[in-house]
User: Fold this.
Amino acid sequence: MPTGRAPASDPAGFIDESLQYESSWERAEDYERRFGTDLEYYGASVGAVRGTVRNAERRYPDLGHDDVTALASELWARAVFERRLAAVVLLQSAGRLLRPSDLTRIEGFLRAARLPELVDPLAVDVVGPLLLRLREQDAVRATAVLDRWAAADDAWLRRAAVLAHLPAFRSGEGDDASFRRTVRLVSGAQQGRVAVVEEALDLVRQSGAG
Assistant:
């Protein structure tokens, strides 16, 4: 569990300092057992991460699109689980600000995440709602990105492409034809039907996908 604290004079510093204040050696060790040694862990609870992001949004109320996306990237840049989870929570909270062009940044996060605890909320709570908001050419461009993810060699990108359908089916707006296209692309990818992808397909089917 890291002990050096970043200055709190900026949003990233405030979030980092707050997360370290909420640290627990026991929880950090539990996270390492569960999630592996590729990340560092402060040992802050998920509730503390969410509360910290809410506090940051109150402390810095004028964050616009560029501020939010830059802050998410700054948090993600250090391989600390709680910082990366805070980046996800921030994007969930500021989803109304996101644009189709942000899918490139999110793709980078997904490629590095490699944990359901990070991949799934990005796909379901960030990408999925964004897709539901898009219309016309923006929707076409976003669908092309999703298709590329579904055919990618990276299993976590394929999982994200599948789970991004979940909000639409949960809200009754799911598109069976679009989902079946994703399934075909996933099935055609190298090592396409692996466990993390199969699990995602089952979840979406349970929500009504044909």
